[in-house]
Design goal:
Structural class: alpha/beta
Mean pLDDT: 91
CATH topology: TIM Barrel
Strand content: 5-15%
Low-confidence stretches: none
Largest sheet: 8 strands, mixed
Number of domains: 1
Order of helices and strands: HHEHHEHEEHHEHEHHEEHEEHHHH
Number of helices: 15
Radius of gyration: 19 Å
Strand order of the largest sheet: 6-5-4-3-2-1-9-10
CATH architecture: Alpha-Beta Barrel
CATH class: Alpha Beta
Helix content: 40-55%
Length: 363
């Protein structure tokens, strides 16, 4: 039944094109790796230090990374999200991962990752608000991190801005996005997770509504530059997907060896059986990319919500609109990470946004 329904939906040439490119690229067997425990910033509320992840130190010798790559290659890994710490501090190690796998790297932007040797590396450059907010939250009130990063990645085709939108600051979004686009880059939105604020979840969710509306407005203004659909925006900011509520019981990006309890494994919700989130020691894993022990329901990480949607294909087969929401989410994930051809894919963004926005208005 599912295959017949999908084939009917794929009679649409545009959907067939997206699906064909994904199929040609093949499935991803992904992991997350802290490349280093070191960082040149101490951002307010950063999950890495808030959860004590820096206690797992990277190995002194590069040989341990070589052995890690051998183990993961043998296990079938083909895609790595590189985080930290700050990966730009360890370029030799980053190069080894880049040469071995498809890689996406997250950086604070203070140090430019050189073009030579990393020509096809997707680089997510963090920004947390306008220059004043970013200086306060990430630069200890002194350093304009955003300005430095704009200079480092001006007109760099590899770079996209990983904009973590903060509740209470929707008015900053338009100015930040306009600067990023003028800088020659695209933008992917994330939501600041409620780490230890003490604010109740309902109140926090209400504060995300203004951000969601403003992000949707940015999609209207810059459809060729925003790497997030209105559908993913809604799922991430509301924590709702087809009657399910976001939390540990439904998260798909749990480390297979340490993060999955017997109850979670048996509850029937999809899981990524290959995924592991490795600490900087390259041996131990934690529950997920951004948590050791914290409350999963307070997580608004966009990558984990991408995965939530992607692994729930069956619940998106009830209509062509829902299938379009699923397929465009899958395609955009492959596009951001350059698993599909990037330049032609970027040209498809306005049509992806046109279709998903229309379906959002109907829902």
């Amino acid at each position: 039944m599912s295959l017949r329904v999908m084939q009917e939906y794929l009679n649409d040439p545009f959907l067939a094109k997206l699906y064909g490119e994904i199929r040609a690229a093949g499935p991803l067997r992904s992991i997350s790796v802290d490349l280093t425990h070191k960082c040149n910033l101490r951002c307010t509320g950063c999950y890495f230090f808030a959860e004590g992840m820096e206690s797992r130190r990277m190995p002194a010798g590069i040989e341990e990374l070589d052995r890690f790559i051998e183990r993961e290659t043998a296990r079938g890994t083909n895609f790595v999200t590189v985080v930290g710490g700050e990966p730009s501090l360890e370029l030799e190690r980053l190069k080894k991962l880049y040469d071995a796998f498809a890689v996406n790297v997250a950086t604070n932007g203070l140090l430019r990752i050189p073009y030579e040797g990393f020509e096809d590396l997707p680089i997510g450059v963090a920004v947390w608000g306008d220059h004043e907010s970013d200086r306060t939250l990430r630069g200890s009130g002194r350093l304009d991190v955003f300005a430095r990063a704009l200079d480092n990645y001006r007109d760099d085709p590899r770079a996209f801005w990983y904009y973590t939108a903060t509740p209470g600051r929707p008015e900053e979004i338009a100015d930040v996005v306009s600067q990023c686009v003028a800088n020659g880059n695209s933008v992917l939105f994330n939501y600041y997770s409620d780490l230890g604020t003490g604010e109740g979840r309902p109140a926090y969710l209400c504060r995300l509504e203004d951000l969601r509306r403003e992000i949707d407005r940015m999609i209207d203004l810059y459809p060729g530059h925003i790497l997030l659909s209105s559908y993913v925006n809604r799922v991430c900011s509301t924590g709702r997907l087809h009657g399910l509520r976001w939390g540990y019981d439904v998260c798909t990006s749990l480390s297979a060896d340490t993060g999955v309890t017997p109850e979670r494994a048996a509850n029937g919700h999809p899981l990524n059986p290959h995924f592991r989130s490795y600490n900087a020691d390259l041996v131990t894993t934690r529950r997920c990319c951004t948590r050791v022990t914290g409350d999963c329901s307070s997580c608004y990480d966009v990558w984990q919500h991408f995965s939530w949607i992607i692994l729930n294909l069956r619940s998106h087969l009830g209509s062509v609109e829902e299938f379009t929401n699923w397929l465009t989410t899958m395609y955009m994930f492959y596009l951001i990470n350059r698993i599909v051809d990037f330049e032609p894919g970027i040209a498809l963004l306005p049509e992806i946004h046109r279709r998903t926005q229309a379906y959002e208005l109907q829902s």
